[in-house]
Amino acid sequence: MNEEATNEEKKWFGTLLSYAKGSGGRLATSVIFSMISLVFGLVPYYCVYRILDRYIAGNLDRVFIQNSILAALCAYLIKVVCFGISTGISHYVAFNVLEGLRLKVADTFLKAPLGEVYAHSIGEIKGVIIDKIEDIEPPLAHVVPEGAGHILLPVVCFVALMLVDIRVALASLLALPLGLVFMMLTFKLSGKNMEKYQRANAGMSSMIVEYVEGIEVIKAFGKTGVSYEKFAGAICNYRDFVIEWLKSTWVTMKLAFAFMPATLLGVVPVSILLVGKGSMTISQMALSVMLAMAMVISMAKIEVFSNGLRQMQYTVLEVKKFLDINSLPEPKIDKLPEEFTIELNDVHFTYDYQMGEVLHGIDLTLNEGSFTALVGPSGGGKSTVAKLIARFWDVSSGSIKIGGIDIKDMKVTSLADIVSFVTQDNFLFSRSIKENIRLGKPDATDEEVISAAKAACCDEFINKLPDGYDTSAGEAGKRLSGGERQRIAIARMMLKNAPIVILDEATAFTDPENETKLQESIANLTRGKTLLVIAHRLSTIKNADRIVVLNDGRIEDMGTQDELMQRSSLYNRMWQAHIGARNWAAGNLKEA
Q1: Per-residue pLDDT tens for 18-27?
Q2: CA-to-CA distance for 434 and 432, rounded, in angstroms?
Q3: Which member of 38, 145, 420, 463 has the lowest number of beta carbons within 10 Å of its beta carbon?
Q4: Which residues make Cβ contacts (< 8 Å) with residue 245, sequence separation at least 6?
């Protein structure tokens, strides 16, 4: 296992580039231009050396000065142009990689079982998709091309120093071993805490998202003090951890920054000594110092870039954990049903094996064109059955078939095309009402969208909005009420017009004056379709072809309303409680 992890760490950069096709070649081009840029940056130093050398020799003339200045200027322009090309290409590559990574993570979540998605907090997911992936851009756009150039430049400078005098070249390396030792110590100390840092950062992000999303509840129950303390505590804990981490590496990091680029410590005294002995000219000494200074800049950059590269490695490996989430297995050959009878055969299911099974051997057939209702106490497994049919999860054992074809033998997209699922709490995107409805059928015309909205009793309230159908639903649809969001979701379902419809108390938030009309619209539009309704208000499903009573993950009874009233004590109690609640509500209204 450790060997596999080590191999993954070694291949992390290839993994990164694999999410942007053709990026490897472009990045290599960027590196080449960066190297050319830095090498041409040395030409002005050579021009200064030649002018100084001619001046000391007493044969300096105006033409030579002009030619040297022109050569230096041309070299500098080449340096600037090549650097611009390098950074332009590297930024193009970086943002393509970011796009590829984000799309891949989103696609992974789309294809994964919901349990795998729910295992990660919103803050953690947001931190990876937005923050962590964004953190890859600066090192990828700058560290890789510029870092490669700054690795080459000290080599070129060292070779040039050897040509001047090998003793000066060796002197430039005097402080390097100490710098490398301190840098390796810094990486070792830092590496131990990097994983803890990632967890601390994810925990803080989760707490921030939880606090912001729950602000309404916090205010409603007067828990601002307690919740804020928890929120502030998470931030303070993160701050304390980061400060302690920086303290642990402060000494070695500063020593590395002090010794690593300290080429002048050896070059200057050795050059002066050689000039004094007559083994080196003053112009050669000046060139040696300039080359050593160029090495100083590059060595300092390498230290900074190496830390950025290490951070990018940790980030890529963190993102890869999300990319490696197990997806729902997809068949190689897609099978499509010709009819839409749903069969559940000995279905067992568990969300978490430590908590035990949720469904215990469900056998149920929903005939094509029939109206089936699932009822029962909360936690009995009703929503689980519905979500398994839509394949939000895979069954632990047993099978679910549509038209005689196991849903595992259908592609996820094909199954989604034939199943419409409307829940109590429906998510709307921060885009126009029209586009939120159009999600049910992306190629629908405006007229079709409006027709679906009218059928779902949405048209009246939509036309009262500031921009009508072009009004934004707001973040997560929060500009609309719960009942309005639910009707938009029903309009979306009506527009989709799938042969199988699953409604999880689809009219729970609808006001009484619209509920009857909405129920009639749903009844008309689902006629001839395989309809499964999860109901808490039993009066809405009393005319179902079959009512299935689920209790503790098992089918306790099934039949028509009249049959269950006669033989099912549980259904009878639920019906009496429902009627009593309706009468109590009606009585309160009359008294009011």
Answers
A1: 665 666 678 7
A2: 5
A3: 463
A4: 190, 193, 196, 197
